[in-house]
UniProtKB/TrEMBL annotation:
Domain of life of the source: Bacteria
Alphabetical list of CDD domains matching this protein: LysM, MltD-like
One term under GO cellular component: membrane
Protein name: LysM peptidoglycan-binding domain-containing protein
Gene Ontology BP annotations: peptidoglycan metabolic process
Leader sequence segment: 1-22
Matching InterPro entries: LysM, LysM_dom_sf, Lysozyme-like_dom_sf, Transglyc_AS, Transglycosylase_SLT_dom_1
Residues of the LysM domain: 306-349
PROSITE patterns referenced in this protein's UniProt entry, alphabetically: LYSM (PS51782), TRANSGLYCOSYLASE (PS00922)
Keyword annotations: Signal
Length: 355
């Protein structure tokens, strides 16, 4: 990216100044699915689940994206390994596909991005929020930078905010950016039954955030009209996820997978040391045709179905974290329609146990 372009992006808030410091539900499933003409970008452009009301401020961002087509070329380079996986997960959860555009605003799809308030990863999750939604943050591993873990957490959070905000995606995105309390206060100060997001007294940063999202969706959906060439990202998996347990030497994994150190670290920036920790687990991202099977990592544990009895102060998210899964998976397995639990309720969970 040219230096002048980067400066403009920073001034628009499209990049963080401190930046650069298979399927999710079935990690081992590598089967290709139906192709969409134009690939992943076309799939995103075809989704219109989030409805916008006209806002003049978004026009400034539309104009900027149209005048700087190279921006989306750079984004495509950053996102090419991950975008299909995220789109596929959104499809499986029946969430708006256009939510895959949020990491462009959050981090320019750079997993190593860190904000001035220490939010990290492509979804820019803070430590407390990440932990609340089941993402591990340890001295030796930061799950916010792991695409698998952070995307599950971010989508759980977005769905939670959507349900908490009267099924209004613009409110939910505002809450994702500014916090639910900010949205609640803005709504309580407005006399309308469900006021437009633009009529609320919100921080300028939050309104800019939603305006950028609207502008991105507008421009990507009309790329041909504005002579913007979006690099093709095929609608098929290019990355697989393998779950490993126990202590392992990452150099042996890299050798077995036949990938370069640079590529391995690009796909797995959450790993902070060259050896995984005994008793812990990791989701390792690899190119679709690579494998780390028999690379020397431990297979000392297996997963077993057990019944867990809900205790006082338990939440769906705390239970998901305890059993190293996601709230969405727990709800699906136990056929739950919402997040509410009752004391003594039995939930079917997968528990890691010694061989």
């Amino acid at each position: 990216m040219k230096k002048i372009t980067k400066i403009v992006l920073l001034s628009l808030g499209l990049m963080h100044s401190s930046s650069i410091s298979a399927y999710f539900s079935e990690p081992s499933n590598r089967q290709c699915t139906k192709q969409f003409e134009g690939g992943v970008w076309q799939r995103i452009a075809s989704s219109n689940k989030i409805k916008f009301s006209y806002n003049k401020h978004a026009d400034d961002y539309k104009k900027w994206f149209i005048q700087h087509p190279n921006f989306l070329v750079v984004i495509s380079e950053h996102a090419s390994s991950f975008l299909y996986m995220i789109v596929k997960e959104l499809e499986q959860r029946h969430l708006p596909i256009e939510l895959a555009l949020l990491p462009i605003i959050e981090s320019s799809y750079i997993p190593s991005a860190t904000s001035r308030v220490s939010a990290a990863g492509i979804w820019q999750l803070t430590g407390p929020t990440a932990k609340e939604f089941g993402t591990r943050v340890y001295p030796w591993f930061d799950g916010r930078r792991n695409i698998f873990e952070s995307t599950n957490a971010a989508l759980d959070l977005l769905k939670h905010l959507y349900e908490a905000n009267e099924h209004n995606w613009l409110y939910a995105m505002g809450a994702y950016n500014a916090g639910q309390g900010t949205i609640n206060n803005a709504i309580s100060g407005n006399l309308s039954k469900q006021p437009s997001i633009w009529s609320l007294k919100l921080p300028r940063e939050t309104k800019n955030y939603i305006a950028k999202f609207e502008a991105l969706k507008f421009v990507i959906s009309r790329a041909k009209k504005y002579h913007i060439v979006l690099p093709e990202i095929p609608y098929k998996p290019v990355i697989a996820v393998e779950k490993i347990y126990g202590k392992a030497d990452l150099t042996k994994m890299i050798s077995k997978a036949r990938v370069s150190y640079k590529e391995f670290l690009k796909l797995n920036p959450g790993l902070k040391q060259w050896e995984t920790v005994k008793g812990d687990y990791h989701y390792i991202l690899l190119p679709i045709n690579s494998t780390i099977k028999d690379a020397g990592y431990s297979k000392e544990r297996v997963l077993k179905w057990v019944l867990y009895s809900v205790r006082s102060h338990d939440t769906l998210y705390s239970i998901a974290k305890k059993f190293q899964t996601t709230a969405t998976s727990l709800k699906s397995i136990n056929k739950l329609s919402g997040d509410k639990l009752y004391l003594g309720q039995e939930l079917k969970v997968l528990k890691s146990v010694p061989l």
